[in-house]
Amino acid sequence: MKLRYTIVGISLLSSVFIAAQKPLYKDSKQSVEARVQDLLKRMTPEEKFWQCFMIPGDLDNVPKGQYSHGIFGLQVSAGNLGGGAAGQLLKYNANEDAEKLAKKINAIQKYFVEESRLGIPIIPFDEALHGLVREGATAFPQAIGLAATFNPQLMSTVSTAIAKESKLRGICQILTPVVNLANDVRWGRTEETYGEDPFLTSVMGVYFVSSFENLGIITTPKHFLANVGEGGRDSYPIHWSKRYLEETHLVPFYNAFTKGKSRSVMTSYNLLDGRPATANHWLLTEKLKKEWNFQGFVISDASAVGGANVLHFTAKDYDNASAQAINAGLDVIFQTEYKHYQLFIPPFLDGRISQQRIDDAVSRVLKAKFELGLFENPYVSLKEIEELKKLNHKPLAEKAAAESFVLLQNNGGTLPIPGNVKKILVVGSDASDARLGGYSGPGNQKISLIDGIKSFTKNKNIEILYSKGIDWNIQDFIPVSNEFISFENKKGLKGTYFSNSDLKGNPAFERQDGQINFKWTLYSPDPEKLQPDNYSVRWTGKLEAPDSGQYQLGLRGNDGFRLYLDGKLMIDQWEKLSYSTKTINIDFIKGKKYDLAIEFRENRGEANLDLIWNYGLPPYQKEYNEALHLAQNADYIIVAAGIHEGEFQDRSSLSLPGNQESFIHDVSTLKKPTAVVLVGGSAIKTTSWKDKVGAILDIWYPGEEGGNAVAKVLFGAENPSGKLPITFPIEEGQLPLSYNHHPTGRGNDYHDLSGEPLYPFGFGLSYTSFEISDLQVNKAQYSENETITAKVKVTNTGSRPGSEVVQLYVKDLLSTVSRPIIELKGFQKVELKPGESKLVTIEVPVKQLQFLNEKMEWIVEKGIYRIMVGNSSKNLTLKQNVEVL
User: Fold this and answer.
1) Neighbours of 15 (CB within 10 A)
2) Which residues are CB-contacts of 242 (< 8 A; sequence separation ≥ 6)?
3) How do residues 14-45 score in pLDDT, each as one tens digit?
4) 125: part of which helix (H) or strand (E)?
5) Per-residue confidence at 385, pLDDT binned at 50, 70, 90?
6) Cα dihedral sign for 588, 589, 595, 596?
7) Distance, C-alpha 766 to centroid of its chain
8) Is-contact 211 167, C-beta < 8 A?
């Protein structure tokens, strides 16, 4: 059936009739405030709630009338629109392209405008951390890589490209960027940030959000506030002083709101000073809305409101959590399913949330919808869809990638690869995988490292060999598949669950569990029948040997657990101690079925248990040996080595995982020129192997054109110019470690280790050399309202064109309250030809030197400040004192 979409157009007669009947809120000539108040008066309590509720989803297979009350917005999913509330408006393959997504959003908007009672359009929202997370959208370098460019103008160009790709698809709000400070690089979400420094993060954040807001897309800086706690653990409780938060973690948010004009913000999952961030009155109302006069709306992270109940234990149930959050200043509850509304709507209707607070929250949402122009034009036009088809941002993606790479080491000029090299071996799963990092779409024709190298060298008479050889994702054991376990000829094992930790008495229930691979971290196996800190389970059934031979079988989890085979106790780790892995060697006979029993108990909570073995693992050692063999005949070796990280994927170790470091050590014995290419979004410890290789190039997650950019840098067609936005430690024991810490009472060193970093903040090498000289400051003395203007001469003293980042740091020499040892206050990237010199000017408003005094008042303190200029936080060769009067 051929479908027609009416995006704009209405008969003149109908227009006259509607104009006569049109309510004030639909009159575009009225002020936004007047329209908001008029619409607010017409809304039922239920309709007001739904403007404070957002979910991912669409109208596929939705019963007619389900959304008659409207909704804040949807993260529109791929899929068909058939059969639901939107009828047969649109059908298409799940592998949507940009045009189909735009038309689908139009169809959904059409339904809400024409079918909901008040015709309130939705806000279609999505993720766009380093590219819209959609089929066909450009995947740029990960956020940490964009920060490493130290190039705000490039960031603006990239964010404008992402904004265009978003707007032309009908996206009106992005849940981006992450302006949290990566104050501990063990945090799995470091890759999503702009690094550890509040100044750099503020600059990059403002340039990013400004592009979207200027194009009429709402930005949502996150996660408010301080989403990484002790040990680098995601969403860990925060008990830091308000002074520290004000002078560091709050700074990028404040700048995003005041300079970037962000109209939304997302709260974090963690506790802040004993209260969930989603229900923290000081944070959301006193600080954000009153002191900062934030006029936008506050949304929760996905499912975070309920976290007050199931995680923080500061609410007795979900509706109480809802009341606490909205009363504290949250405006929109972000959940993952439509049916969840039942948990959170009661306090909107029974008086536990004041009408004034509800109206304030709804007004903020309606204000945004009116400002977006959604009531007048909620649709993407056919003209805009055609414009979308013409966009090609792949050259920009490659340029951004090349500028993001940080050359950490280049002993003996190992890079760029010499022209006389004839046979190159490339090793590593990351050479072929083209990983994009967290919060990424699929990318467009991703170029892997090996693809880029082969393309660059195809006419250069160079033989390129590839061997996987190594992998960051090496597994010693894997869960036993339900293909090999059964109970009474059904896949899986019979689970008998007891409401005590001793397997005693009558079971609470029994069920068939398909696989023993459980993580009961938030709930018990059955919250209605078992308490999360007092239960036990016995699984029984058969284990069929898949092959003959000796294999390891066992259990992994936070003990206690036991394993019996043919009635014999084989593993006994019944004492509750910690997380452990216990295995035994079994001589299996193919096809034989063994009686299997597993016992598990939990008396604290956060249970974890896997039935594991080493059957079916990839041939890691064979691939490893093949790569070593190929290396013996290669002229040059490139090792692509990466890490595992991500949301709720924090790292206890910063070393390269799997067999990667072992290979670097082994291949180094061949004495061949070797370059290691690091793939990952955070610090990687190179301590044990860096002196065994010639060059180390950090490429972060370089985006869909990363392979081409890497190849050009490796062979010298591009010169690396990235700088580290985070500090790399020598050992994990130094963490947290940042360049701008406060002075200590004694010193920075350990008894057995220096306190210095492995690679400092702002560090990055080049294929050429630069000299920064002739620091001149425009005045010796300044008042609070003046600007410090520093000028330096930068000269390319090498033989290749390249770019250097001039960095200006400030130190308060004497203060009434301790200040950081140095603070980044300005930077500028300059491109120079060999022998060329340029004058670089960096301006620092004196007001940027402000801090909180003993009375917690913002002041610029009079006194002497030291201006320091160089090319990293450690290499500051030019210094001059100035005085603030």
Assistant:
1) 11
2) 856
3) 444 444 578 999 999 999 999 999 999 999 99
4) strand 125-126
5) confident
6) positive
7) 28
8) no
DSSP-derived pairing of the beta strands 297-299 and 333-334: unpaired
Distance CA 177, CA 191 (A): 12
**Identity of the amino acid at 271:** L
Burial class (CB in 10 A: 0-12, 13-18, 19+), 637: buried
Q: Are 399 and 701 in contact (CB under 8 A)?
A: no
Q: What is the CA radius of gyration of the chain?
A: 30
pLDDT of amino acid 89: 35
Rounded CA gap, 132 and 129, in Å?
7
The 8-class DSSP code of residue 358 comes to H
> How far is C-alpha 505 from the chain's CA centre?
47
N-to-C CA span, the chain: 77
Q: Is 590 exposed, middle or buried (0-12, 13-18, 19+ CB in 10 A)?
A: exposed
Q: How far apart are CA 561 and CA 128, in angstroms?
A: 44
Domains of the chain, first to last: 1-15+54-122 (no CATH), 396-472+620-734 (3.40.50.1700), 478-613 (2.60.120.260), 770-884 (2.60.40.10)
Predicted model pTM: 0.94
Q: SS3 of 550, please?
A: strand
Which SS3 state, helix, strand or coil, does residue 212 take? helix
Question: Beta strand pairing status for 509-513 and 333-334?
Answer: unpaired
Q: How does the average pLDDT of the chain come out, rounded?
A: 94
545: tokens are 């040997």
| Residue 591 C-alpha from the chain's centroid | 46
With beta carbons less than 8 A apart as the criterion, state whether 284 and 298 touch.
Answer: yes
**Contacts for 510 with CB less than 8 Å, ≥ 6 apart:** 494, 495, 496, 497
Pairing of strands 73-75, 53-56: parallel
Best CA proximity match to 595, nearest among 613, 558, 570: 570
Structure tokens at 506: 């009558």
CA 625, CA 469: separation in Å to the nearest integer? Answer: 7
Instruction: Please answer whether residues 681 and 645 qualify as being in contact, where contact means their C-beta atoms are separated by less than 8 angstroms.
Output: yes
- The confidence score (pLDDT) of residue 319 equals 96
**598-634 per-position pLDDT tens digit:** 999 999 988 999 999 999 999 999 999 999 999 999 9
For residues 870 and 762, give the distance between their C-alpha atoms in angstroms, rounded to a whole number: 10
| Centroid of chain to Cα 483 | 36
Amino acid at 240: W
- How does 812-834 read in b/e, with b if 16+ C-beta sit within 10 Å? beeeebebbbbbbbbbbbbebee
Of the candidate ranges 62-71, 155-164, 633-642, the one whose mean pLDDT is the lowest? 62-71
| Burial class of residue 473 (count of CB atoms within 10 Å of its CB; 0-12, 13-18, 19+) | exposed
Tokens found for residue 553: 């079988």
Q: Which residue has the tokens 């404040």?
A: 254
Contact 442/135 with Cβ under 8 angstroms? yes
Q: Which amino acid is at 847?
A: K
User: Half-sphere exposure of 520 toward its Cβ, with a 13 Å CA cutoff?
Assistant: 24
* Closest by CA position to 232, among listed 189, 199, 203: 189
How far are the Cα atoms of 47, 59, 87, 167, 366 from residue 297, in angstroms, in the given order?
17, 25, 32, 20, 10
How far is CA 758 from its chain centroid? 25
Tokens of 658: 């799997």
- In tens, the pLDDT along 202-224 reads 999 999 999 999 999 999 999 99
